[in-house]
Amino acid sequence: MAGYMRKLNGYVYDGANKAYAALANGIFAEIGANGVVAITAAGDMELRVEEKTTLWGLPAVVLNVVIAGDKEQYFVENDLGDIENDLTWDGANYTCKVGDYVRMHRPLIGEQLIMTVSAETYAALTVGDTVKPAVGGSVAKKS
Q: How far lies 35's CA from each of 14, 31, 92, 99, in Å?
């Protein structure tokens, strides 16, 4: 998975917590007892599908935040490190390692993000659909 924030109301990032598990860029995460993990329960945040597209050749959706929700769920957007000197860097598969600090942002109403999704999720969504963060860090259509 991959993704990043496209429009922000404020550049406030949490970078004080370490990853308890490997975390790909562009997933929803939460702060657990031992550190940051992909979300373990569906979120109450709601996002509207603005566009279906691709990101680094992978199926992706552009999402507008319409309800921020009460659960503290964050969108992982790690600093990409030393891209110029790291010949192994792969933007489509950038992952924060266990024990590394996680750069993440709690999405606010009016903000926009882009994230890759599975082919199945991509096929199930249409522009205008509402989605919520899903277990594992991706999104699922609101039922």
A: 12, 6, 24, 8
